[in-house]
Each structure stands twice: as structure tokens, then as C-alpha cells.
Amino acid sequence: MVGSDERQFVTSINVTAIVPVYRGERTLAQALSSLLAQDIDGLEVIVIDDGSPDRSADIALKMQETADGRLTVLRQSNCGLAATLNRGIGFARGKYIARQDADDIVLAGRLAKQFAYLEANPDVAMVGTWAHIYAEDAPTQRYHRHRRSAEALRLELLFDNPFVHSSMMIRTDVLREIGGYCEDKARQPPEDYELWSRIARKYRVANIPEVLTVYREVAGSISRTGENPFQAKVVGIATENIYHLLAPDYSVAECSALAEIYHCDGMAGIPAPLTNAKARNMLDIAAYRISGDKSTWSDEFLAAHRRIGAHFTRRFLRRRIPAPLLGPARWLKHSASALLRRRRLPVS
Fold it and tell me: What is the pLDDT of residue 7?
């Protein structure tokens, strides 16, 4: 957890960008250059080398020489992503903390737009952006375009992570008050989904609907050690989110079953009493508690509700398809979708 500040808070720093790095020598210079090129006053960049065995620290230290005092480089033995980020939060002097990974790129205007958004919306604790997905160095046709409003994002957060981690800007005082990233190995990864869930229970959150980040898919980035039962941990966090909203009307077991249905392809172990109708009813109650009567829902919130409901229906339909037929059924679906796309017809 975040301890006492390692520096005295200086109000002239507006934004502290925290860049953890492990084995990042190939992409780190580009990532830092994109940060230092941001047109924003009062920027501080903290690079924390998490025991990299490559030249990551040397690259950062070389760039520090020409960064006009804006770049600080810290070195440590390997301790993992959550603990590294918490050290950065403790060291930060900025009013806001921006996240940046050593293999991603900040596009022009991102920090200034997020800073302006948080200044204009004091009830919002954190704001992300949309992102263009690169496969290594090659741009793809894929993007992360998540929901933008607090209500739609809170509904999505019940089940999954609607934010790009390296696109985030968060209020420093909120991060410190909430306790920073969880360092319990039994709950990570996903460190980001776990943290956003805790923040969204107390504060409003948002995304700026502009592509202001390049998210690079690479093999291995910040260090993760040991086994990684990622899906089981996501289900556990989703269970907590759902139960936090639906208790005492539904039990932890029922909320866990709902989270498992959302995430797990194989439906083995899902309690039979949790029917599609019951799952949809749980979703409806959650939506009502987040955004009130359906007549007041925004188009975005309604779209999020419909998407999640349709996802549950598909999961339950899949239970009725014998396992040997699942593969051919998926192939037929994908083939039909590809054919319709080629003919430029809408796909339901």
C-alpha cells in the first residue's frame, strides 16, 4: 500500500506521469519522448526501473540529461507492477497522476485534455481515453473505444475493465485516500481493474472519447511472476462489484455465478438455479440502482445494458449446444460474419 510521501507536495507540478519499466529497452525511448513532447505546463515524469536486466535504466538516465529537470529516474530490485506504481504515487508531486507504460505512446494533446477535463469536473476522480491498438510496431485496424459516461462505465465495471490502463489520469489525493494499487498477490493481476472498481464505488469516472493513446500489444512488459490465473481473479473482482450493488437482495454465491456466466466459456459449475431470466433480472436491478428509472437512461447507458444482457443470453444458449458442436457453430458464425462484411451488409 502507499506509504508516506517520499517528497513534499509541490503545487506547481500539475501532472506527474508514472512510467514503470521492466525489460523495456526497445520501446522506452519512444514512450518517454511522447510524454516529454506533451504541451502542458507543470509536467513531472517519474520512471521506475523495476530491476530490469536490460538497458532500460541506462536509456532513461540518458534522456534525463536533456529533460530540463522534468524527468526523474528511480531504480529498485524487482518487486512487480503494483508495488512499483505505489512507489511512484508516494513520490509524485502532481495534483494529478497520469499512467504511461514503457511500451505505449502518448498522442498529442492527451495530457492537456485530461487535465482540463478534471479541472472542469471536480466530481470526477479519473478519466481515460480511447486507444489505437498496435501489434508490436504495426498499427492495426483495432481500437479500444470504451464507454464515456460515469453511469455506463459503472455498469460495465460490474463485469470487466472499460479503461485502458496506460491512458488514465487520476486525482493524486483520491489515489492516496483509496490506498493505491492492491499489492496482495492473490488479487493481481489485474491491478488496474481492482483499483478502478474501488474508485468507482465512491467517485464518478469517465473516458474522453478521442484516440489519444497508442496501446502496444507486445510479449512481456512489466514483470509478472508466478502463475497467472487471470480469469479467476477477474471473476472474483466482478463478484465483489456485483455484490456491493445487489446486496442484500442476492447472495455472494449468486453474484459469483453471474460473474462466472459473463466470463467463462465452459459453463460447467454454473449453478442451475441461476437462469437466464434471473441473470437478466439481476442486471436490471443493478442498472436501476446505478442510473434510476429506465425512462431516464441515456442512449449510451441503454446500449451498455443491452450489450451485457445479450451477452448473458448467448452464454445461456451455449449451454444447450453439445460440446462437440461448439467448434463448428463458432466457425459457421465467424464465416457468416465475414461474408456479410464483404458484402457490406449489417451484422446483428
Answer: 46
Looking at residue 186, its pLDDT comes to: 84
CATH dotted code for 15-217: 3.90.550.10
- Distance, in Å, from the CA atom of 343 to the CA atom of 178, rounded to the nearest integer, reads 51
Q: Exposed (0-12), middle (13-18) or buried (19+): which is 236, by Cβ within 10 Å?
A: middle
- Whole-angstrom Cα distance, residue 92 to residue 129? 22
Res 286: pLDDT: 97
Neighbours of 133 (CB within 10 A): 16
* Rounded Cα gap, residues 348 and 76, in angstroms: 51
Q: What mean pLDDT do residues 294-316 have? A: 95
Using CA atoms, how far apart are residues 147 and 200, in angstroms rounded to an integer?
Answer: 14
The answer to whether 117 and 149 are in contact (CB under 8 A) is no
- Distance from C-alpha of 34 to C-alpha of 20, rounded to nearest angstrom: 15
pLDDT of residue 348: 37
Q: Are 301 and 152 in contact (CB under 8 A)?
A: yes
To 5 degrees, how large is the angle CA 195–CA 45–CA 20?
50
- C-alpha cell of residue 217: 500489444
pTM score of the predicted model: 0.85
Domain locations in the chain as residue ranges: 15-217, 230-335
